[in-house]
Amino acid sequence: MKIAVAADHGGFPLKQTVIEAVRAAGHEAIDLGTDSAEAVDYPDFTEKVGKMVQSGQAERGIMLCGSGVGANIAANKMKGIYAGICHDTYSAHQGVEHDNMNVLCLGARIIGPEPAREIVTAFLGARFVGNDPGQERHQRRVGKVLKLENQ
Hints:
This protein is an alpha/beta fold. It has helices spanning 12-24, 42-55, 69-75, 89-99, 113-125, 136-149, and strands spanning 2-7, 28-31, 60-65, 83-85, 103-107. The protein has a single domain (2-149), classed as Sugar-phosphate isomerase, RpiB/LacA/LacB (Ribose 5-phosphate Isomerase B, Chain: A), CATH 3.40.1400. The chain is 48% helix and 16% strand. A five-stranded parallel beta sheet has the order 2-1-3-5-4, sandwiched between helices. Helix 1 (12-24) crosses helix 5, helix 2 packs across helix 3 and helix 4 (89-99) runs parallel beside helix 5.
């Protein structure tokens, strides 16, 4: 998969670790910046990730900011983007499996390099199960979220 990765200044210290984790999992990382710890605005970089996912140029995205909260809020304002803050592996894979999450938001001031690697690996290793026999409830629920998005 192609994975769009970006960070604001708060997420920058963990960005290279995340890119390395994406590559170690066998995927292509598309680095969308920022390239320094100089202050920038998280919505600008979140938008870059979201647009790559919306256009299909990336199958999923990862956005880092200080807490993960701002990036998560901004990402979920974009049509077709289903972002979640995950600071544990269970949420990272379950968000994809049950909720069709396509953007992972991480707080670089919350977690360190090793948890980030494990969380990214869990996120990238998961797939949406809503189309599997016996799992239709997840597709139904995601459909209801889509209905909310389109209101």
